[in-house]
Amino acid sequence: MSLDHRLIDLLVCPVCKGPLDMQRDAEQRPTALVCPADRLAFPLRDGIPVMLESEARPLDGPAAA
């Protein structure tokens, strides 16, 4: 199942209401929607974004300036 790019443009981070970026695996399949401001990744399950703060995982590495 493919995630509609129009849907991605409408979705925002449930924490800060900021824009989200698509995270992809090595085969370029979408795996999560990422909020760069909050450093959180919201998973995709069966092509459906799970936009719950309790389901998000923190991103590794230093925060962006």
From TrEMBL:
What the entry lists under SUPFAM superfamilies is as follows: Trm112p-like
Entry superkingdom: Bacteria
Return the Gene3D superfamilies for the record. 2.20.25.10
**A Pfam family of this chain:** Trm112p
UniProt cross-references to InterPro entries, sorted A to Z: Trm112-like
Cellular component GO terms, alphabetical: cytosol
Q: Which HAMAP family does this chain map to?
A: UPF0434
Q: Which family does it belong to?
A: In the C-terminal section; belongs to the UPF0434 family.
Q: What is this protein called?
A: UPF0434 protein EOE66_15745
